[in-house]
Each structure stands twice: as C-alpha cells, then as structure tokens.
Amino acid sequence: MPHRRGVLALCLSFLLVLAACGGDDEPTTSASSSDATGGELGDCETFDSITSGAPGYPPDFIQMVPPLAIELGYFADECLEVEFIDFESGAAAFRAMAAGEFELGLSGSISPILAFGQGAPAVGFAASGAFVDFQVVATSDVQSCEDLAGKRVATDGPGGLVHAITEQYLAECGVNINDDVELIVGEPETFVARFAQGDIDATSMHIDERIFAQQELGSDLTVLANTWEEVPQFHYTTFATAPDVFEERREQFVRFTAALMRTARWMSDEANRAEAVTLMAEVSEQPESVIEESLDTFGNRWPTSCDTMIPLESYQFLIDLQVDLGNLEEPFDPTELIDTSVCEEAEARLTEQGF
User: With a threshold of 0.90, does the pTM exceed it?
Assistant: First the structure.
C-alpha cells in the first residue's frame, strides 16, 4: 500500500481530472441496445428508453460491462432500450446529465461526490467498474521506480489522469516528476506508438493498452505497478442521475442495474470465458490475445453483487479524502448520495430470475 501522502497526491490529481475535466464536452459516438434481441424474461410489449452519457468508446477493458449488456441482450431482456453517448471524459458525461441532456451519466465517482458535497443534487445507484485498471510501465532497461530518474516520462500533463498516476508512483521513491525526469506531455492515445518508436521511456496506461503495445507492436515493457493493487479503495465509476429523474424512473433503474449485474456475473463465470473474450475483443476492437492477458492479469473484478458494485466504505474513503484535500468543507454520509436500495432490489430480482 502507498503512504498516506502518496494516496492523497494521487486522489488530488484524480480530482483535477474529474472536476476540471480537460477535453471537449461534445459527444462523439454512441452504442445502443436497439438492435439487440431479448425480451424473453419480461415478454416485453413495450420498451422503456434510457440514454446515458459515458466516456470512451470503443471501451477500455475496465468499461466492458455496459457494452456487453447490449451484446448479450440483457438490457432488452429487462424491456429496456439503452443508448450510451460517448463523451471525451466522464466528468463531461456527468455535466451533460446534470444539465438534463440524458437520464444518466457514467463518470468517475468523484464527480457526483463533489457535486453533492458542494450543494448540487445528484443520486448514484450503480457502477460498471469499481477498480482503476491502469499500470505504470517502462522500457525493459527500467526495473524499479528509482531507475526512472533522468528518463523520458510521458503524461497528459498536470491535471490529467495519466499524469496523476505517474506522479504519485514517482513520489513514492522520491523522484520528482517536475525536476528529476524529462517530462514529455502529449496525447495518451499516442504513447503506445511512441514506445514502439523509442521516443519515451515510461508512462501509465490502461492494462489492455500495455498488452497491445507488447503483443502487437513488439514493445518490450516492464510493468512497475498495478493501480488496482496500490489504491484498491479508490472507487472508479458511478452511474448517477438527478433526484427528480431518479424518483420518476427508479423502477427502470432497478432493471438497468439488474442487467449490469447479470452481465458481470456472466463475464465472471469461467464457463463463459471463451465467448466473453470474443465479445470483448469485438466491442473493444482489440485482438483476443489482448483480452485474454488482461483477464489473466486483472482478474474477474466485475461488480457481481451490491458489495462489489457500490461498497459504501469505498465512497466514504473518497469523501474523507476530499475533506483532507480541502475540496469539501466537511464529510457527509455516503448514503445521502448513494441509494443502495436500487442495487438491492436488482440483486433480489436476479435471484428470483434464477441468475
């Protein structure tokens, strides 16, 4: 586990990403369950429509649950037509939801925490991924954090998620990202290629990006740290909505959450691994070998129960950190923001359905 100072530094940088949110708020692409077959469970006469803003499509490895819920027809089974509108960042998706553009916003869990703590109404009730799947990686000649002194370290710049993770990791061994390395600021989407070209020595990236760099581009990389092991309490993403929308459409959100959890259980069943790999490769536009190794390394950390989907202790951890960092004046009970009853009813629904 990192020292408290390191955790605070990492979480402060996460806040800069999720609250300040560099990038365009305009949506780019979408994914919809409108073409999925289903309805056997509910024998649907009509379908309820739900639209959610979401970051990153095609999805990174950690964000596979919602698109697979579409591919498997589980939203359709719950008589839902779900569309995900892609945004540059989760914070942008949250802002679009708060502005009334969509029923839901999928964002980093810090966004609804800060919004609520600063007086803006929000309700969180579900999650598609709870752990950060980033790895700190470097060229093969680098075997430790200390070896990064004087090396070319690439990030997306102060306030960026890649910068946050990399800066925190370097701080743990006394390497200052501003003084002790050659900091290269650029677009994270280019870092895989820049490793292959020999332009950079280290950065942080999603696990599937790292594996792609090694398998497809022949980049010989050293994995220095797994973020999900370093800061396991940091809850990654939350589906949030406005209180009035929550009251009006709560029953639909129960079915929505049930479909997410059913998908995560399907993904976690070893009997479905081969089919899951194929589907995940299709929706992520990655080779199956990349998905295979991601699963082997990251594990089945999908939210299969309310305890793993929306653990209140993880939200309390984040709330307390915001107070420590001076971003909130005082802590609040996470149950004021997170409604666990939706997840509990969804879990009971799956039990009744035999899942």
Answer: no
| pLDDT 10s digits, 71-99 | 999 999 999 999 999 887 777 888 899 99
d(CA 340, CA 216): 42
What mean pLDDT is predicted for residues 59-66? Answer: 90
Tokens of 325: 């960092």
Q: Take residue 226 and report the two structure tokens written for it.
A: 């797994």
DSSP 86-150: EESSHHHHHHHHHTTSSSEEEEETHHHHHHHHTT---EEEE-S--S--EEEEEETT--SSGGGTT
For residues 200 and 152, the answer to whether their CB atoms sit within 8 Å is: yes
* pLDDT over threshold 50, residue 37: no
Number of other residues whose CB lies within 10 A of the CB of residue 333: 11
Average the pLDDT over 106-126 and give the result: 90
Range list of H helices, the chain: 4-15, 65-71, 74-77, 90-98, 110-117, 161-172, 191-197, 207-217, 227-230, 243-268, 273-284, 288-298, 306-309, 312-324, 340-353
Q: Three-class SS of residue 81? A: strand
Q: Give residue-wise pLDDT tens across range 227-265.
A: 888 878 888 889 999 999 999 999 999 999 999 999 999
Q: How far apart are CA 84 and CA 299, in angstroms?
A: 25
The domains of the chain, with CATH numbers, are 4-131+234-353 (3.40.190.10), 134-230 (3.40.190.10)
Quote the pLDDT of residue 4.
34
The single-letter code of the amino acid at 255 is R
Are 204 and 169 in contact by the 8 Å Cβ rule? The answer is yes
Contacts of 159 (CB under 8 A, 6+ apart): 13, 16, 17, 20, 22
Strand 237-241 and strand 80-87: the pairing is unpaired
Query: Would you give the DSSP letter of residue 241?
Result: E
DSSP string for residues in 12-23: HHHHIIIII--S
pLDDT at 18: 40
Q: Residue 184: helix, strand or coil by DSSP?
A: strand
Instruction: Evaluate the omega torsion of the peptide bond into residue 311 and state whether it is cis, within 30 degrees of 0.
Output: no
**CA–CA separation, 64 and 316 (whole Å):** 26
Paired tokens of 249: 């459409």
